[in-house]
Amino acid sequence: MTGAAILDIARDGIMVFFVVGAPVMLVALGVGVVISLIQALTQLQEQTLVFVPKIIAVFAALLVMLPLMSDALAGYMTRVAERIVAGG
User: Fold this and answer.
1) Backbone CA torsion sign across 4, 7, 13, 17
2) Whole-model pTM?
3) What's the mean pLDDT in 1-22?
4) What letter would DSSP give residue 22?
């Protein structure tokens, strides 16, 4: 296996990582910012207030994005398996 092929696999893996991880992380970030703004506006400084809405939003995002995530991971595995079968 050449260095260029290894770089292609690594680059493809990083892109799949971003496609799979980014939606959930962006949802968690958005919910965290919104809750922080609400806390700042109402001067309600309860530390545990962020966790429940964030967990619910992340689980909802996982349910909605699961087909996209599984397709991205399955496609990556298929491409890697094809390279293994082809001999590099």
Assistant:
1) negative
2) 0.79
3) 91
4) H
